[in-house]
Amino acid sequence: MTVTKINADLTAKLIAIVGREYVLDDQVDIGLYDCDAETLDKAAPDLVVLPATTEQVAAVIKVAAQYKIPITPRGAGTGLSGGSTCVRGGISLVLTRMNRILHIDPLERLALVEVGATNMSVSQAAAKHNLYFAPDPSSQVASTIGGNIAENAGGPHTLKYGMTTHHVVGLKVVLADGSIVTLGGAARSSNEIDLTGFFIGSEGLIGVACEALVRLIPRPEEIQTLLAYFDTVAGAGQAVSDVVAAGVIPAAMEMIDRLTINAVEDYLAIGLNRAAAALLIIELDGPAAGILAQRKVVEGALEINNVLSMRWAADAKERLVIWKARKTSFGALGRIAPHGYVLDGVIPRSRLAEVISGIEAIGTRLNLTIANVYHAGDGNLHPCMLYHRENEDEVRRVMLGGKEILELCLTMGGTLSGEHGIGIEKMMEMPLAFSAVDLTMMAKLKEAFDPSGILNPGKVLPNLKTCGESGARPLLRHKILSGC
Which pLDDT belongs to residue 468? Predict the structure, then answer.
């Protein structure tokens, strides 16, 4: 792709579309958009543009196509794979102004929303109908529907309720030429190709979603949340497997290790057991009549795995405290080191204990501090390697550790990503999971939708062969691993 440099004429056209206030070109302003929550990879855009409507998005993309300028969609910047980092410069297209809840249909249990709306805001708008939007990443207070769609996000309750793709039935999308198309819709069945399903998880490579028709679900009649402690992580992992094997599918099963327990307790001071090797959260929901029987099954599975203690939340307030311990865990780790590199591998649930031991061995051999947070119920692991970005040797060991952990997940029959996406973070590991033919077909699909290659270039597909191909913004990872 031949890229035209940003010039006054291009900037003027963008200002005419969205207004002077919403085209940022000051270096201080631009610096705020040089990464997402994956802070190792930093690359500032040339311009930041904040449209307010689908029509403005289409007009901006038409200008970008005319000038062959890379354009990278961005929501709240809570992503953890560098998906919204502008590795080829160009325009950071920030969609957070597009945050309206356009319509809620309580009878069909659907909401039409703009993609800058947050997960939490959709659920709050639906609450008066006793409905909510199920995907609940830890960043759900800030994370946007558009970001959820780009990465096919999940969260703790994925175990029972599934990923974003299970809750989006239609999309309004702007393609690389600026045309506006509608994918899917409210109909229960269709004879068309499922382009909605194809688009979800495409990480901004084939189009920019502007509106989404999302499915809402009823609030459960009863919710019961358990906090349990174990003296080994392997014991907690086996308890997770035994609960599911016994026929109970909880709404969520989350685990954190001792290092994370202590970081959270240092931060929140809520009385967590600092001596425990693992904390396990299990949440049951559904009809009240069935919860008591499920509780007995869960308690039995924990007892045979030598649970140290377990306590059911007495009320909604206690439940919120338990979940706060889980959802603030990554932030709390900042008390140990200023930077964290969070992985997102997936393994079969039955291999959890083996992988936990393998990650510990990798950390010991590479002298890395690794905190572990797991969506244990569906085998989605989030090892967080703590480091100092200014220490190149430490960063190098983090990069090697990440590669080895992902290789371990694949060896165990798992995958590279459960919900964070590939982005920059796992791009060079793609050949470990996919054949050359697979990757070629993915590239051809992108080319079919984006022949000029302007949409979020430098992501997902491992096409960097030399240092220079990273463009004017070589990343720290390339410098360290390739000697750029």
Answer: 41
Give which of 334, 336, 310, 291 is closest to 236, Cα–Cα. Answer: 310
User: In the predicted model, is pLDDT for residue 266 greater than 80?
Assistant: yes
Rounded CA-CA distance 307/217 in Å is 33
Q: How far is CA 325 from the centre of its chain?
A: 19
Question: What structural domains and CATH numbers belong to the chain?
Answer: 8-94 (3.30.43.10), 221-333 (3.30.70.2190), 337-423 (3.30.70.2740)
- As a whole number of angstroms, the distance between CA 210 and CA 95 comes to 8
Please give the full DSSP string across 356-416, using - where no structure is assigned. Answer: HHHHHHHHHHTT-EEEEEEEGGGTEEEEEEEE-TT-HHHHHHHHHHHHHHHHHHHHTT-BS
Cβ–Cβ under 8 Å, residues 60 and 93? yes
Element (H, E) at 351: none
* 434, amino acid identity: F
Strands 222-230 and 208-215, bridge-based pairing = unpaired
Tokens of 170: 């239609």
d(CA 456, CA 205): 5
| pTM, rounded to two decimals | 0.93
Four-point Cα dihedral 161, 165, 169, 170, nearest 10:
150
Contact (CB, 8 A) for 322 and 282: no
Helix (H) or strand (E) holding 237: helix 233-245
Mean pLDDT of 115-144: 95
10 Å Cβ neighbour count for 68? 14
Give the least confident one: 15-24, 74-83, 109-118, 458-467. 458-467
Residue 90 region by backbone torsions, left for phi larger than 0, else alpha for psi between -120 and 50, else beta: left
Q: If DSSP codes are grouped into helix, strand and coil, which group holds residue 87?
A: coil
Chain position carrying tokens 């409905």: 131
Contacts of 327 (CB under 8 A, 6+ apart): 138
- Angle ∠(61,62,66) on CA atoms, nearest 5: 115
Question: Mean per-residue pLDDT for 222-251?
Answer: 94
Q: For residue 171, what are its two tokens?
A: 């999309």
Distance CA 185, CA 193 (A): 12
- For residue 399, with 0-12 CB atoms within 10 Å meaning exposed, 13-18 middle and 19 or more buried, which class applies? buried
Question: Contact 44/473 with Cβ under 8 angstroms?
Answer: yes
Tokens representing residue 247 in the block: 């026929």
Task: List CB contacts of 28: < 8 A, sequence separation 6 or more.
Answer: none
Q: Where are the beta strands (DSSP E) in 50-114?
A: 71-74, 91-94, 101-105, 110-114
